[in-house]
Amino acid sequence: MLDLMRYESRRRIRGTFVLAVLLGLFALLMIGLFPSISESGADFEAYIESLPPAVREGFGVSGAAITTMEGFMSTEFYGFVWLLLLGLYVTYTAGGSVAGDIENGQLDMLLAAPVSRAQVLLEKFLSLLTIIVVLNLLMPLFVYGGTMLVGESIDAFALVAVHVLSVPYLLACGAFGTLLSVTIHRADVARRGGIGALFVLFVLEAVATDTDYEWLGALSPTRYYDPAEILVEESYDLAGAAILLTATVLLLVASRVVFERVDV
Amino acid sequence: MAAIEVSGLTKRYGDVVANEDLTFDVREGEIFGYLGPNGAGKTTTIRTLLGFQSPTEGTATVLGHDVRDEPELIAAKAHLGYLPSDPGLDQQATGEEYLDLHASLKGDERRGELLELFDPPLSRTIREYSSGNKQMLGIVQAFMHDPDLVIMDEPTSGLDPLKQESFNRFLRREADAGLTVFFSSHVLGEVRRVCDRVGIIREGRLAALEEIDDLLERGGKRVRVHTDEPLGDDVLDLDGVVDLAREGREARFTFTGNYNALLGALAGYDIVDLEVDEPPIEDVFMHFYGER
After folding, report:
1. Residues with Cβ < 8 Å from B4, sequence gap 6 or more?
2. Whole-angstrom distance, CA of residue B54 vs CA of residue A263
3. How far is it, in rounded angstroms, from Cα A180 to Cα A174?
4. 3-state secondary structure (DSSP) of residue A123
5. What is the distance, to the nearest Å, from the Cα of residue B260 to the centroid of all Cα atoms in its chain?
6. From the CB of residue A110, how many other CB atoms can be counted at a distance below 10 Å?
7. Is A155 left (phi over 0), alpha (psi -120 to 50) or beta?
8. Which residues of B fall within a CB distance of 8 Å from A15?
9. For A46-69, how does the pLDDT look when each residue is reduced to its tens digit (9 = 90+)?
10. For residues A231 and A119, what is the distance between their CA atoms, to the nearest angstrom?
11. A152 alpha carbon, distance to own chain's centre
């Protein structure tokens, strides 16, 4: 049991560390910019407030908070890098997981061994935890350390919470990619379809806020994980996390049902 | 019990019929050649036997387990090896890591012994492997858990002739020790060297099922005869004269009919030279495919 997960996890580990370092450097760069931005605070706040509501929603933070480290990082780093980029990355990776193996014949070799399709699927999904866990362990260190270095402070509990609560979100992204991967057997299409769909949902959720179509945004996983809310308002959407975990389970069950019935 | 029992197996992809109503058995301990040109439906049968795809109609059993039932088939797979023509290997892994993964899934009690016969560079990544090395790694993973049945799809395509020969000898020894082999190929010479029995598949249907010796017998003899006077219709119109070619007073043909009738007819001529040979195996093949 879990041999395949360990194998696939080892395959992911190097790329994950490279990604962690790059994102860490980006976070440090942002943190380094913070002191000068907070100095010109008033202008910046006015700029944000002047934006249309939907765009402001995209920033995820009100103008008043941008001059705090929490507000600044939730806008400039977590709102885009964690919510959007990392969500897309996990969806993309999961989209290639099964479909890629179908394409290059690796799945045939695996399924010729005495393992069930359900087990292959589950272990492949679990190997995404390598990405999710490693990044969520390393990034708070970069952010907290960087903040100390520039002589600022950040709420450590909220920082940990923003990472912990991203786990259900990223799992849901991975489960969505996995469902695409077992449905669309061309890896490229599954990967791109996944990131396209997630991006559309992200935008939809942002622009539908405060309109008659706000319910549409409920389809987007980004509705249930809001870094700005966590960092700035210290409000922890546990119900959202539960919804994301439930969605993860449902998507995986659907993936299993599909995968057990298709010709590969 | 037969190692593989295929009954009424049909597989369609939309309008395309890849396998149609196939029925045959593979006996325990035999090397069964599954012969047909590219596109005849060999791989479709193999992928159905392994449960990668489900049959449209009919079914098959592998080591007594129904291929349509996943838990059943998993029980069979513990005793089954699979070797495709171009095994899908993880390019980023080393040969060693890849074998370790498969060992954890199915066991590897014969790994060391196999690596003495087939020796891919295990410490290198598979990306750097030649096609021969990939195939050798494929062979090791297919046999290392000491299976009772090995299903192979054009297994020797990437191997050089020397390795092919040693692989064929290895198969023969394993079969003598009780292993059952299902071996697909489009090369008759290869099948003749290793197989006990062949099923010939053509456009998705089973065209013939023969002991290899019977197949050769049915293939007839290659005849070259040089006579004083050119041969007349009394010889050339005999039943069983095919692939006729004439050059002056010399005639060449494949003869699949009654030898007494041929010799009787030839007795009327003054024969300068006569050769009667085993036909090239490819000609035998043609009788099942060509419309001649």
Report:
1. B25, B26, B32, B49, B60, B61, B62, B63, B149, B180, B182
2. 7
3. 10
4. helix
5. 33
6. 21
7. beta
8. none
9. 777 777 776 666 555 555 577 788
10. 38
11. 27
Q: What is the pLDDT of residues A126-183, one digit of tens each?
A: 999 999 999 999 999 999 999 999 999 899 999 999 999 999 999 999 999 999 999 9
Q: From the candidates B43, B48, B49, B52, which should be mutated to test the interface with A, based on the most A CB atoms within 10 A?
A: B52
The per-residue b/e assignment along B150-174, b for 16 or more CB within 10 angstroms, e otherwise, is: bbbbbbbbbbeeebbeebbebbeeb
Q: Which two tokens stand for residue A47?
A: 């700029």
Q: Among residues of chain A, what percentage have pLDDT more than 90?
A: 70
Q: What percent of chain B is modeled with pLDDT above 90? A: 64
Beta-carbon contacts of B101 under 8 Å, excluding residues fewer than 6 positions away, are A3, A4, A7, B93
Q: How many CA atoms lie within 13 A of B242 on its CB side?
A: 16
What would the pLDDT profile of A203-260 be if each residue is shown by its tens digit?
888 888 778 888 888 889 999 999 988 998 888 999 999 999 999 999 999 999 999 9
Contact A113/B at CB under 8 A: yes
HSE of B227 in the Cβ direction (CA atoms, 13 Å)?
16
What is the token pair recorded at B246? Answer: 């004439």
Torsion of CA A255, A259, A264, B4, to 10 degrees: 170
Which two three-digit tokens encode residue B171? 């198969």
Q: Is the CB of residue A52 less than 8 Å away from at least one CB of chain B?
A: no
Q: What is the mean pLDDT of residues B124-145?
A: 95
State the complex-level ipTM: 0.84
Crossing angle for the helix pair A41-50 and A3-39, nearest 10 degrees? 110
Best mutation target, A10, A109, A261, to test chain B (most B CBs within 10 A): A109
pLDDT above 80 for B282:
no
Is the pLDDT at A81 greater than 60? The verdict is yes
The angle, 0 to 180 degrees and rounded to 10, between the axes of the packed helices A117-126 and A3-39 is 30
Instruction: Report the distance separating Cα B285 and Cα B70, nearest Å.
Output: 37
Cβ of A257 under 8 Å from any chain B Cβ? no
Contact in structure between B200 and B287 (CB atoms under 8 Å) = no
Instruction: Name the more confident of B14 and A206.
Output: B14
Lowest pLDDT segment from B81-85, B110-114, B163-167, B175-179 = B163-167
At B255-273, the pLDDT tens digits run 888 889 999 989 889 999 9
Say whether pLDDT at B292 is over 50.
no
- Return the structure tokens found at A58: 């995209």
Q: Do A105 and B70 touch (CB under 8 A)?
A: no
* Contact indicator for B95, B137 with CB cutoff of 8 Å: yes
Which residues pair with residue B57 across a beta bridge?
A: B10
- pLDDT confidence band for A123 (50 / 70 / 90): very high
Residue A27's nearest CA partner among A140, A156, A152 is A140
